[in-house]
Amino acid sequence: MGQQSLIYSFVARGTVILAEFTEFTGNFTSIASQCLQKLPATNNRFTYNCDGHTFNYLVEDGFTYCVVAVESVGRQIPMAFLERIKEDFTKKYSGGKAATAVANSLNREFGPKLKEQMQYCVDHPEEINKLAKVKAQVSEVKGVMMENIEKVKCI
Q1: Which residue has the higher pLDDT, 143 or 87?
Q2: Start and end of every Longin domain (predicted)?
Q3: What is the C-alpha separation between 32 and 93, in angstroms, rounded?
Q4: Whether the predicted pLDDT of 48 surpasses 80
Q5: Parallel/antiparallel/unpaired status of strands 63-70 and 53-60
Q6: Residue 82: which of 31, 45, 52 has the closest Cα?
Q7: Is the pLDDT of residue 2 over 50?
């Protein structure tokens, strides 16, 4: 997996991008921003494909986390990146200045974290894949347990 598999990321509140990072040039920044304007505000995950890239979004509690990746990288690594960034961002800014920050005002503070996590996810795909498998197993076990609880309630 090459250096260029994750190429651009940002964190936004509503439609205002608070921090972003890329080492590349291209129209992907404007496409990502245009998609941001059209995303539903509901908590969810979204992926759009365009020009050999995926535009991956995680929307949660009024904040949107985005990463643009080359299509060949799949969805697992971009989604793992978004989860990691959400966790970092929430820890650092929960109930703090992210609620009132103006456009790009967190670039200096949080831009390096975006870069660091992008690099980590690109450099450690096997760890990301293992983690995703474990999460899937936990989710499956949870589903079975919930089903069993429902069955017990019906008795």
Answers
A1: 87
A2: 10-114
A3: 23
A4: yes
A5: antiparallel
A6: 45
A7: no
Burial of 46 (0-12, 13-18, 19+ CB in 10 A): middle
CA distance 113 to 128: 17
Q: What is the mean pLDDT of residues 62-88?
A: 94
Q: Which distant-in-sequence residues (6+ apart) come within 8 Å of 47 by Cβ?
A: 54, 55, 56, 57, 75, 78
The two three-digit tokens of residue 34, written as one number:
């245009």
Could you tell me how many helices (H) and strands (E) the chain has, helices first? 4, 5
Within its chain, how far is the Cα of 100 from the centroid?
A: 21
Per-state percent for the chain, helix, strand, coil, to nearest 5 = 55, 25, 20
> What is residue 120's three-state secondary structure?
helix
With a pLDDT cut of 70, the percent of the chain lying above it is 90
pTM of the model: 0.81
Strand 44-50 to strand 16-22: parallel, antiparallel, or no bridges (unpaired)?
unpaired
Is 70 exceeded by the pLDDT of residue 77?
A: yes
Higher local confidence (pLDDT), 94 or 89: 89
